[in-house]
Fold this protein.
Amino acid sequence: MVEIAALAWILRPRSVYLSVMAKDRLQAAQLEYLDNADYSSAGSVAKAQVFEVACRKLLLLQHSEASQGGQAGAMQKIDTSLIQAELTAVQDWLLANGDSETVGNVFPDFSNFRG
């Protein structure tokens, strides 16, 4: 019985640490999301790429935060369909506005080069 109590005491700080770390990551993803939400009006591919990553992080982290409960143990209901819609919109914007990774390779034409 003593061994189980000791094991529970050892594992508890780790779970508390992981919970705090997940909250920090969630807050960082929320800040990235808010800071780069104006990618379209700014016309910035870089902001759109950061926004896309932030949406992915939020989709992953929101679930873990909701399953742990909010303050005073109250469960939070998170509508991830809104974040999913934003993710789809930013991906469409990147395809339409020249995301360098999806455009493809550009090869120079040296056929008229004078050497």
Observations:
- The mean pLDDT is 76.
- The CA atoms of residues 109 and 115 lie 14 Å apart.
- The chain has one domain: 2-98.
- The helical segments are 2-35, 39-42, 45-68, 80-96, 100-103.
